[in-house]
Amino acid sequence: MPTPIPTIAITTGEPAGIGPDITLMAAMRAWDAELVAIGDIDMLRERARLLNLPVSLTPYQPGPQARPHTPGHLSVLHTSVSATVIPGQLNPANAHYVLKTLDLAIEGCRTGSFQAMVTAPVQKSVINDAGIPFSGHTEYLAEKTGTEHVVMMLATDKLRVALATTHLPLKDVPAAITRESLERTLRILHAELTGKFGITRPKITVLGLNPHAGEGGHLGREEIEIITPLLEKLKNEGMQLAGPLPADTAFNPEQLANSDAYLAMYHDQGLPVLKFSRFGEAVNITLGLPIVRVSVDHGTALGLAGEGSAKAGSLITTIDLAGSIATCAPNFVPAGNA
Ligand SMILES: NC(=O)C1=CN([C@@H]2O[C@H](COP(=O)(O)OP(=O)(O)OC[C@H]3O[C@@H](n4cnc5c(N)ncnc54)[C@H](O)[C@@H]3O)[C@@H](O)[C@H]2O)C=CC1
Ligand SMILES: NCC(=O)COP(=O)(O)O
Description:
36% of the residues lie in helices and 17% in strands.
């Protein structure tokens, strides 16, 4: 029996940004998966017209089996915007719409209608401007699926960078680096590198928090008091861990060759390295969730919306990865939240 192909939901993101554009661009390709865009079908039709993309949009009709995507067609699970969309112009009136697209995707993944969700970028600020506290998809998905601990990881074919903390003001980072939280992060990262990426004995390089990994305690004590004792414990269990290494020198060729993933202590410690190496071609995957969620590596690029100059490379890679995880590891349950 051939393996059934997955149905992948694509949330089209902030409607004034490039999410609709890149979704329509991805729809111009053939896929060995059924793609279902979630968003306002009239807004998507208008964007296709603006971009001169010959995509025919039809309301999503669930079938008994997923059908491979054919270029130039797109099924849309429709939900209406509240206010007319002008590309490039944010409107807090559409914040609830953006969250509704996420809720529909989560529900579809949980009920089995979708095997994965792929997210186009949202504008975190405009959701907050609408009076809804929102840090990011990562935290929203954790809350909505009742998952206590998740891990953000960005990946290219050469480098994976996971984060010990996500969207936090820098001043709150040290307090969030606790032994318990770091242990859960490392267990989830380790389990998912094996379960979703097929790496049998993953090698993880852990960065320090402070400059020079604390310089023997003279530039901070988190390495001595929290990170090192935890790494020793997990190494004694058989995990292959290096660190804590100074972040400024840890991405050297030898260490890169010896690492399946890096764990950075905070967002802007690890992600600039990855984005400098391959911005626009990486993916962002949320580890630890009971559903498959993969996202693009970039934001809403408001200035490019409706212009035709946004690149769909990261979304293409993201759909590919979501499809292969949904096909190869459909029942993978991550450790660390047990
Ligand atoms: N997964 C998500 O939902 C993400 C959302 N964001 C949100 O996006 C908003 C804007 O963030 P920024 O820091 O300005 O980052 P951004 O990625 O939107 O833009 C940074 C630069 O890259 C360019 N760029 C981005 N994506 C591109 C693409 N596909 N093709 C061509 N050029 C592209 C932009 O034009 C801009 O020059 C923020 O609200 C942020 O929170 C940022 C990252 C991820
Ligand atoms: N820099 C990555 C990012 O901000 C994406 O966050 P999320 O919306 O995927 O949680």
